[in-house]
Structure formats: structure tokens, C-alpha cells
Design goal:
single chain, Dihydrodipicolinate Reductase, domain 2, 262 residues, 34% helix, 8 helices, 5-stranded mixed beta sheet, 2 domains, Rossmann fold, 6-stranded parallel beta sheet
Length: 262
């Protein structure tokens, strides 16, 4: 059994991770955290996520002795829980997006002492898309233009999404492009496409869980690959899979690609 702690426990992702973990005998939720003065502080985690009272209350500090912390919070919160993981020598799964370069460097530095699984998206399908996007770009070659379109719910704070940037990164690594120099965010005015650029377009609409499309096109054809998430459970199950994999792992910075294909 893998003992987990969930940060951002009252958020959309935190609640689904808690609900699925409480229903799965492979996991035990030993701690659920939120930022100080959050309105859910002290609430029963099971009641909060719709799974029925479980006797564990939301706290602002890490409780118990988890094998893994699962963090889907905000960048500032991630750094706080990263420090807690280092102090406890506990593995951590990070799904927070929008981290700055300096914050990413802190994550990488922490990985020298603890196992960290960090990914912009924990969906199995999306991680397959990461791999395919690079392979397709490499095979098609520089004559094909690349455009990435992503759509998310109106409440998402960062744009473009971490997943869209992950797709662009896969393509850049496969084709020798340099990020972020090759990215063009949206188009307006008189701005004809230039060779090697990757167009990035972000939509924020309604309650969209997440859609990503990559189009490759030349003057004769278009090749498209896409993924649509229908429920946050897709990401929650992937995060739990990563947590189970990370428990007891050697220190290092891992990705969902390592979890699935390593």
C-alpha cells in the first residue's frame, strides 16, 4: 500500500485524486493540505471529495508519514511542499504548471536528494502524444509547418498550457529548434509565417477539461494529432500511477515518460 499526501486537496484536481485514492485499496491518504486560511480548512477530506467521511481533516501542514506527496497546487505552494518533501526525504509528484525557470531550477536541485516525478500532464494518452509529436515532426521534416492549439476551462490561470509547451518541447528536441525562440503566440496584423516557427494558440472557454491538437502541414497535405480529456479523473489516475511508481525510487528528476515507458 502506498501512503500519499495530497496538496491543494480542496481544488478540482485534489478532490478527484482524493476520491480515487480513497476508493482504491492500493492507496492510503494520510494527509491532505491546503494553504492557510483556506475555507476548506478542517473539513473531512472524504466528505469534501464526495466519497463519504473518512476521518481525515484538511490541514495546512504535512501530517503522518507519507511515501509520496502529490502536488497540484500553485507555483508558490509547490515550492513550499517541495521543501517539506526534502525535509522528510519523501518522494513528490508535481503536476503544477506555470513554474518559472528559477522555480524549475529549484525542483531540479531538490531531485538530487529525493525522487521527483514532474510532468505538465499526467494523462497516459497525452504522454503518448508527446512521443508521437516528436516522431512525426522528425519524419516529416522542415517543409511542414507546425501549429499547436489548446483549449481549457475559463478558470485556468496559465497560457499556453503546460501540455502545449510540452508538445512544443518534444517537437523542438526532435528537430533541433530552440525554445522559446521559435514560438509564435497567436497571430494578428501582417505577420506571415516564417520557416521553423511553431504557432501556439490558447482558448479559454466554459468548463473544457482540456483539448490539444498539433497540426503539421505543407502545400500538399495536413497531418493532425489530437487528444481530448473528458474528465479530470484521466489526470488523477495518472498522478496516482506516478505516485505508486515513485515510492521508494532512487533520487532523481523523472517524467511521466519514465513512469510509462522507462
Amino acid at each position: 500500500m502506498t501512503k500519499i499526501a495530497i496538496t491543494g486537496a480542496a481544488g478540482r484536481m485534489g478532490r478527484r485524486i482524493a476520491a480515487l485514492a480513497l476508493a482504491d485499496e492500493k492507496f492510503q491518504v494520510v494527509s491532505a493540505m491546503e494553504m492557510p486560511r483556506h475555507e476548506a480548512m478542517g473539513a473531512d477530506v472524504g466528505t469534501l471529495c464526495g466519497a463519504g467521511a473518512c476521518g481525515l481533516s484538511v490541514s495546512e501542514t504535512l501530517q503522518g508519514a507519507p511515501d509520496v506527496i502529490i502536488d497540484f497546487s500553485v507555483p508558490e505552494g509547490t515550492l513550499q511542499w517541495l521543501d517539506a518533501a526534502r525535509e522528510r526525504e519523501t518522494a513528490i509528484v508535481i503536476g503544477t504548471t506555470g513554474l518559472t525557470e528559477s522555480q524549475l531550477a529549484e525542483v531540479a536541485d531538490a531531485a538530487a536528494g529525493i525522487p521527483i516525478v514532474q510532468a505538465p500532464n499526467f494523462s497516459v494518452g497525452v504522454n503518448l502524444l508527446f512521443r508521437l509529436a516528436g516522431e512525426i515532426a522528425r519524419t516529416l521534416g522542415p517543409d511542414y509547418d507546425v501549429e499547436i492549439v489548446e483549449a481549457h476551462h475559463r478558470f485556468k490561470k496559465d497560457a499556453p498550457s503546460g501540455t502545449a509547451l510540452g508538445l512544443a518541447r518534444s517537437i523542438c528536441e526532435a528537430t533541433g529548434r530552440t525554445m522559446p525562440d521559435c514560438l509564435v503566440h497567436g497571430r494578428s496584423g501582417r505577420s506571415p509565417r516564417t520557416s521553423g516557427e511553431i504557432g501556439m494558440h490558447a482558448l479559454r472557454i466554459g468548463d473544457n477539461v482540456g483539448e490539444h491538437t498539433v497540426q503539421f502541414g505543407n502545400l500538399g497535405e495536413t497531418v493532425s494529432i489530437a487528444h481530448a480529456a473528458h474528465t479530470r479523473d484521466t489526470f488523477a489516475r495518472g498522478a496516482l500511477r506516478a505516485a505508486e511508481w515513485a515510492a521508494g525510487r532512487k533520487p532523481g528528476l523523472y517524467s511521466m515518460q519514465d513512469v510509462l515507458f522507462g
